[in-house]
Amino acid sequence: MKYPNFKDLILFEDNDFIVINKPPFLASLDERGGSGETNVLRLAKQYSDDAQVCHRLDKETSGALIIAKNPEAYRHASMQFERREVDKTYHAVVDGHVIFDKLLIDLPILNDGNKNVTIDRAEGKRAETIFDSLKYYKHYTLVECKPITGRMHQIRIHLATQRAAIVGDEMYRGKEVFLSSIKRGYKLTKGEEEQPIMKRFALHARHLVFKGLNDQDIVIDAPYPKDFATLIKLLDKFDA
């Protein structure tokens, strides 16, 4: 994989924080077992010596990610995440025509530490997400997701419980989107195997609000990466 120039990812920077638009397929931190592959933390440390990643996004998830440039900033951001004071908004494309109107999903999540995440009312930790449908297509829905807690795979598993799995999210039975399924009369050339429009699940950290060390709000909007933008453009054109 060709890694981006870290500077090109920066959406915001001051003396204490950097916020980047994380590309898909780039891990936030060193993964367990230390594969040694490039990740956000390593790129950030090359840019700013004391950089620390303040939270994480799944490897396939794109979007706004906060990096602290010094220990005080890291503590300041960590406390906001702990107190659930960071306002996080994600966009997801899900299977089906799904009507969500400020729907609160409050289902506890159990993470056994092996990337195996389940809903478990007895043993799970509290997990809350608010969902709103933003745009309806014939076969899909663009959904706004606001996680109140920050459990692993929270948005993905909460959507799956509503029979609205994120497209391309094989772990939670989300199906890939193919152009042939939305474009009438679409024909493949002989012998060609059709590729999905997106080669990952369609989840993007779109909007973020947190406080800097001066207690002023830092407001971030992260544009869609190319693959997510292409999916939306094709749905607008062929599935509206």
From TrEMBL:
Q: Which InterPro entries match?
A: PsdUridine_synth_cat_dom_sf (IPR020103), PsdUridine_synth_RluA-like_CS (IPR006224), PsdUridine_synth_RsuA/RluA (IPR006145), RluA_PseudoU_synthase (IPR050188)
User: What is the name listed in the Swiss-Prot or TrEMBL entry for this protein?
Assistant: RluA family pseudouridine synthase
Q: Which residues form the Pseudouridine synthase RsuA/RluA-like domain?
A: 16-160
Organism classification: Bacteria, Pseudomonadati, Bacteroidota, Sphingobacteriia, Sphingobacteriales
Organism of provenance: Pedobacter fastidiosus
| Family as reported in the entry's similarity comment | Belongs to the pseudouridine synthase RluA family.
